[in-house]
Design brief:
With 205 residues, the protein is mainly beta. The chain has a single domain, classed as Jelly Rolls. The protein is 9% helix and 38% strand. The chain contains one helix and 13 strands; from the N terminus they run αβββββββββββββ. The strands form two sheets. Strands 1, 3, 4, 6, 9, 10, 11 and 13 form an eight-stranded antiparallel beta sheet that branches. Strands 2-5-12-7-8 form a five-stranded antiparallel beta sheet, with no helix packed on it. The radius of gyration is 17 Å and the shape is globular. The N terminus is likely disordered.
Length: 205
């Protein structure tokens, strides 16, 4: 009974915050990962709320997949499928509905199928995110884990993004990004199955 009362109280607080136009506290993903202090989750672990599908007018609020099933939420993970429900592949992009034009620190985890190819967009420009080792790329990465979760750590400051994978620098380590853009943060579906989780951001003052 105590748990039911606690849950009801939490829902009441959330409803009051929404009614007042206040932002909700950072959420945690379905795997009970706790977002670090100062960070805000960009993915609630349940559905695609807060994201938009480039080239489509469909609203993803409360939905667990795009209409063509190219992107789906499965077990607390955003899955970028190799092909859509009609068997069509190619590049498709999922972007946050909100732009992030302050300097920021972005963290997320990805898991790649063998030789899969994807990307993370930072205000438009793309960081190539791939199954690096089995593709013969980024050979300096000694901590990369095949068929397992790897963490991307991206710091954007003064129009330059510094990119790490599992704490090791990617090559090139930095890339230029626009100082401002309405494109936000994006995930790419291209070749092979790709999975993303624990996507969170900390905006700098």
């Amino acid at each position: 009974m105590k748990n039911l009362w606690t849950r009801a109280a939490a829902l009441a607080v959330a409803a009051a915050a929404l009614a007042a136009g206040l932002p909700l506290a950072p959420t945690q993903a379905a795997d009970d990962f706790k977002v670090e202090e100062g960070y805000t989750s960009l993915f609630n672990g349940k559905d695609l709320t807060g994201w938009k599908y480039v080239g489509s007018k469909e609203s993803l609020e409360g939905k667990t997949e795009t209409a063509d099933k190219r992107f789906q939420v499965v077990d607390g993970v955003i899955v970028a499928n190799e092909k859509d429900a009609r068997g069509k592949g190619g590049i498709r992009d999922l972007y946050t509905t909100r732009p992030f034009n302050k300097d920021f620190h972005l963290k997320l985890e990805f898991r790649a199928a063998p030789k899969a190819d994807s990307g993370v967009y930072i205000r438009g420009p793309q960081l190539q995110v791939r199954d690096y080792i089995r593709r013969g790329e980024q050979k300096q990465l000694k901590k990369f884990k095949n068929d397992d979760w790897n963490e991307l750590d991206i710091t954007v400051k003064d129009g330059v993004a510094t990119c790490l994978c599992n704490g090791e620098p990617l090559s090139p380590r930095t890339m230029k990004v626009p100082a401002k853009s309405d494109k936000g943060i994006g995930l790419q579906a291209e070749t092979g199955k790709f999975e993303f989780r624990r996507i969170r951001i900390k905006e700098m003052p």
